[in-house]
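Example record for the data management plan.
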Amino acid sequence: MRQSSTHALLLTMLLLALIAPAALAHQPVCEFADLSARAPWRVPDATISYAYFGNVYPAGDVDYFRFQAEGEQSVLLSLSIPAISDQAVFSPVMAVYGPGIKSDRNAQLPGSLEIPDGHGVNMVPLGAEPVYWFEPFSRKYFWNWDDYYFKAPESSTYTVALWHPQNEIGRYAFVIGQREVFGGERECYETYSSYWTPLEAGVNPYRDRGFELAEDQAPVVDLQLFPLAGRGYNVRVQTLNFIFTPYNIDMDPVPGQGHAHLYVDGVKIARLYGEWYHLGALPADAEVLTVALYANDHSPFTVDGLPVSASLLLVDVMGGEA
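Corresponding structural encoding:
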């Protein structure tokens, strides 16, 4: 067991060493669960460069990305398509919407696009043709569309929507931000190669497909947060009908076994393998802390399609001071 764990660690370190230079340009994030208007990817910091490897699936899918911007701030929005062998160039489109934007009446938008009242929407200009480009660090080819610099009309929250106008399915990399900071999701590094394989109709590409359980068989989870004087926070995750099994990660799912994910305002910040976790800091504007239980194969435990999770309002814990 110890030898197998050592080999796995060495392989992971080698993989990170091979791909890490690419992360200096973009922090990779992967779409393990389908994005939607109600569950968008919340960009942690629109000044930092992120590459979100996503899927337009199923046909008619619209993915959403939400970010904060200051008035007059310029935010890079870009789109790259992995060059998959024997497959034509996948050509999705993007739109950005939010307060203060003057709407383009000629924009061709999908009927399912959900735009709040008072928000204007514009298509993101991507150029006439993508450029075929070899990325030397990952040693992969991409089709790169033109960069676009969105200028926020006011200090607020804005959303990018991405879809395919002919309802085709395919893979993409949405890029936002310019500042190069090392980082990214380890799980995304580990599944990087899968984004150079084609999607198949009827074959769900998302890892978080859900491990459905009957209500009387499902685990129960409770979340508590304990502020520490000048030293961050202690998070406590208590469960019933569930045990943490870090030694079975990536193995077949078993009811009541697995790990947990910790989220701040919908953004995953940690994978948990036990009851206690030390959280160093929280964003000043953080509102909701959530924990959800996952099986060994990373699929979320669900009941009637809803995740087994617990949330708490940070204002109730800290009186509005995160």
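Summary line stored alongside the record: Residues 2-196 form a domain with the Jelly Rolls fold (CATH 2.60.120.380).
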